[in-house]
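User: Please fill in residues for this 237-position structure.
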């Protein structure tokens, strides 16, 4: 079962006040699927089509197509795969937030949620669903974020609670900002500072500064240390 946060939603939400489309009892929840694997989208669509209250109204295989889709047609929830070929998930969430500030975004991933969810929730995602979860859990997650609440699994909620109370040490990568985490993952994957600078349209000096901060916060001195850590914590895309 998932855990629901912010259960009480104001009767007059920002979406209603701004005139944006909101979910009502009179129509189905409109869902956009974003995953670069057509077979995965087909599987999600088949599951969603078995329900009476949800429907898939759009599909995309890249971040660019996802942004174009939400700009051209209304939707109530986006299911966003964590790994897309043309942009990082953090940048994609940020771009979506700039265009559709109230759109619930449910991240779907093969990675253990404890490793990525905190950064993505901090970036503006509405929830995080692991593909290891069951069909009923996915439908619950969609309905939860569509209702304006946050969704995380019970196991993640427990991990977050333990970290907050100091009963369990937080992993070193939790100290990183979203941008630092994004660069950390790329460094761990073997990309050079120049490669990352080109991809992110930043200067080599800026990326080098981020790299130094990452090493300092995580107490590492070599890229190989980052790679070993990322593999150990299942952080590699």
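Assistant: Residues filled in for all 237 positions:
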């Amino acid at each position: 079962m998932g855990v629901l946060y912010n259960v009480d939603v104001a009767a007059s939400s920002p979406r209603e006040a701004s005139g944006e489309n909101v979910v009502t009892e009179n129509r189905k929840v409109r869902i956009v699927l974003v995953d670069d694997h057509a077979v995965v989208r087909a599987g999600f669509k088949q599951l969603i089509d078995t329900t009476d209250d949800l429907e898939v109204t759009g599909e995309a295989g890249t971040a660019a197509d996802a942004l174009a889709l939400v700009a051209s047609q209304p939707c109530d929830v986006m299911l966003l795969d964590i790994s897309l070929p043309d942009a990082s998930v953090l940048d994609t969430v940020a771009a979506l937030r700039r265009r559709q500030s109230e759109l619930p975004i449910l991240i779907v991933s093969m990675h253990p949620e404890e490793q990525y969810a905190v950064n993505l929730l901090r970036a503006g995602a509405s929830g995080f669903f692991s593909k290891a979860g069951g069909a009923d859990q996915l439908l619950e997650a969609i309905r939860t974020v569509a209702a304006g609440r946050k969704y995380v699994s019970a196991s993640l909620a427990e991990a977050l609670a333990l970290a907050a109370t100091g009963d369990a040490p937080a992993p070193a990568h939790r100290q990183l900002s979203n941008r630092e985490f994004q660069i950390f993952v790329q460094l761990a994957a073997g990309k050079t500072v120049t490669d990352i600078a080109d991809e992110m349209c930043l200067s080599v000096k800026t990326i080098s500064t981020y790299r130094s901060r990452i090493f300092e916060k995580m107490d590492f001195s070599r890229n190989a240390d980052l790679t070993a850590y990322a593999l150990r914590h299942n952080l590699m895309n």
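For context: The radius of gyration is 18 Å.
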